[in-house]
Structures are given as C-alpha cells and as structure tokens.
Design a protein that fits this description.
Layout: E1 2-10, H1 15-29, E2 33-41, H2 43-52, E3 57-60, E4 69-76, H3 80-87, E5 90-98, E6 117-120, H4 123-133, E7 141-142, E8 164-168, H5 174-177, E9 185-189, H6 201-204, E10 209-212, H7 215-223, E11 227-231, E12 234-238, H8 244-248, H9 263-272, H10 274-291, H11 294-307, H12 316-357, H13 360-378
Parallel strand pairs: 1-2, 1-4, 2-3, 4-5, 5-6, 6-7, 8-9, 8-10, 10-11
Antiparallel strand pairs: 11-12
Length: 380
C-alpha cells in the first residue's frame, strides 16, 4: 500500500514525531510505500529520518501534487487533512489520529463522522470529546502508545542497588532539575537540557530507573526497567500492578494523579520504592509487551479502516472549512520561513561579533579598554 502520514513539524524527537516515525518505520519494513508530509522540516532532521529508515520519503506538505493517490491518508494535526482534500489528493481510506486531550492542533475536523477511523492515544481524549463537545464515544477507537519492535527483545539485568537514573523529558519541572546528583548518577535527555537525541534501548539499558512520562513509559516497561512517572504535571511515581491501567487512561502523563513533590521527596520515594519496583517489573513487562505491541495496534487500525465504507461528501460548510485550514497552512509556512531567516541572520551577526571579539587587535587593546572603563566609572 501507499500511505501518507502528516505531521506538523519534523524538527526533533517530540512525542508526535516519534509516534509517526515508528509507525512509518514499521510499515516500510512490511513492504509498504510510506510518505510523511510536514509543514516544517529541519534539514538536519532529514538525515536523521534516513538513518531511521532510508525508505521513508519526507517532504513539505506544500510540495504535494493533486495527482497523488494514496491507499491511506493517515493524518495527524488538524489543518493538514482539509488542506489535502482541497488540493484534490486522492485516497481510498482516511485514518485520523489524536495524540493529546488539550493541544488544539490535535482536535478532530468538522467532518469527523465521515472518516474511516479516528484513533485516540488515551481514554482521556475520548472522554474530553464526549464531555466537552457531546460527541458519541463510539466514533473513537482507543489505540494506546506502542512498543517498537526493536524494544521487544532486549531486557535489563537489574542491579540490587540503585545507581544510575535517567530523566527523559522535553519539559522537566524545577524539582526534577534540582535532584541531588551527589548520591546517584542522574543524566538528563531532552530539549531543555540540550540532549534531544533519539532514545534507543541501548541508551535506556544503562540505567536502573527512568523518570519520564508518555511514550518512554512503554519503552521502559518493554525493557524491564522500573519507570517512575513524573514530569510537569506531577505524577504517580513508580508504575506498578495497581496503577498501570489507571495511568494508561491519561497516557501515563501524570495528569491522572497530579501529585507534586519537591526534589528531596522525589529522591526519597525513588530510592525507597526501588526494590519493590524491581520485584514486579517482569510481570509489568509481560503485560506491556502484550498490550502495547506495535503490530497488533497498527493492524487493528488498518483492519477497522478497511471495514468502514465512510466517505467525505463535500458541501459548502466543508469547503469553507477546508479553505480556512489551507489559509492557515500558508500563513504558518510564511511565518516559519521568516523565523528561519531571522535565526540565520542572528547566527551570522553573532559569528561576526565573535570574530571581532577574538581578533588580535581586540586582545591587544583589551587592557587599555579596561583602564578607560575604570576611570570613566571613577569620575562619573
């Protein structure tokens, strides 16, 4: 099959980017032709995608041609599907995915009833659509975050004593950043700590405990590593046999409990709960490998979409809606280009300033400038 994914931006290892890349990688390896269209693609990230799977084709959403035809449009992020429909891109089935209950870009389009499948990564999202918008829950299918295949056959050899802790977060709260590193080795991964890299099994297997939320929970459970759920929403602490299903309802985001601790309390509960977390991790791993298997979750969506005969019949309201979304893409694209231009200009100016500051004449005259500054301040 020929499959098109859409993603708002491809510029780092964010949750939605990883979600789509892992789906694309799986489908490519099964022999499908997979494209990803995005509003903004970082040039360096193109090489990362090639390393991920060289057969994935990635391009700007604005470069797509109306003559294109896909077996499945697998769309994420609200504005893209209307844009594709207005462009006249052909398709057989449409799967629409929602990955967040609170980000507006993750909302479903007005013609949601005509889609072949709407998948939601948590029950929290489905409940939100029902409670706030009054939409029947039967329109949605729960598809939780998955475990990629390359995580399934690796397992952590547990240490009796806690030594190494990894924090995986693009938005760690201050209490996480203030954890005392005197007693334990604590490494941080994410955009804020300038270590936004692809989290692989090989990285996580170096640690005794992972502190994170979302997708990393499934990663850790698959590897048999105790996972401590905590981030900017707070969290429940160690995932265990009593809370795994309850925390899954909110995609292991911490929003289920919202328990906030200070850095000392965090370290205390991590340390004193470690032994019990190790005792139950094998059973948690077995549950996770069965429940979050990527093959089962993707094949379920393909099957349900193919069983649906829904089709989008254009009317004036949908045409106007699609046109508005298309205009939004044009505006966002122009804004991104201007931001890129400003960033490049700033980088150039900064390099020129650095060259001046490091020049020979600046170094030679530095003492004179310090003396001048001293007298100016003295006789003000």
């Amino acid at each position: 099959m020929k499959i098109l994914f859409t993603c708002l931006y491809m510029n780092g290892f964010h949750g939605s980017v990883l979600h789509i890349l892992e789906y694309a990688d799986y489908l490519c390896k099964k022999g499908h032709s997979v494209h990803i269209a995005s509003l903004y693609i970082d040039e360096n990230f193109k090489n990362i995608v090639k390393n991920f799977n060289i057969n994935i084709k990635i391009f700007s959403i604005k470069a797509i041609h109306e003559s294109e035809k896909y077996d499945i449009i697998w769309s994420y992020h609200l504005i893209f599907l209307p844009y594709l429909l207005e462009k006249g891109v052909k398709y057989n089935k449409i799967i629409y995915g929602s990955l967040s209950s609170f980000l507006k870009i993750e909302r479903i389009p007005i013609f949601y009833k005509n889609l072949n499948l709407i998948s939601c990564v948590s029950q929290e999202i489905i409940n939100m659509y029902h409670d706030i918008y009054g939409i029947d829950k039967n329109f949605f299918t729960l598809i939780p975050n998955h475990i990629p295949e390359h995580f399934e056959n690796k397992k952590k050899i547990l240490n009796s004593k806690l030594k190494n802790i990894a924090v995986v977060s693009n938005h760690p709260p201050k209490e996480i950043l203030q954890l005392d590193t005197y007693k334990y080795n604590i490494d941080y991964y994410g955009t804020i700590t300038n270590t936004n890299i692809h989290i692989t099994p090989e990285i996580l297997l170096n640690y005794d405990v992972i502190i994170s939320i979302g997708k990393t929970v499934q990663y850790s459970l698959a590897l048999g590593i105790p996972i401590y759920e905590y981030d900017h929403f707070g969290g429940c602490g160690y995932i265990n046999l009593q809370n795994i299903y309850a925390e899954e309802l909110t995609n292991f985001s911490g929003r289920g409990t919202k328990k906030i601790l200070n850095s000392n309390q965090l370290l205390y509960t991590i340390e004193h709960g470690y032994e019990q977390a190790c005792d139950t991790i094998d059973l948690l791993r077995s549950i996770s490998l069965e429940r979050y298997n990527i093959q089962k979750l993707i094949e379920k969506q393909l099957y349900l979409a193919n069983q649906s005969n829904n089709t989008i019949i254009m009317n004036s309201n949908i045409l106007l809606y699609n046109n508005t979304c298309s205009a939004s893409i044009d505006l966002l694209s122009d804004a991104y280009n201007k931001i890129l231009h400003l960033n490049n200009t700033n980088k150039y100016l900064q390099s020129q300033i650095n060259n001046i500051q490091n020049s020979l004449s600046m170094r030679i005259t530095s003492p004179l400038r310090k003396i001048r500054k001293f007298f100016i301040n003295k006789f003000k």
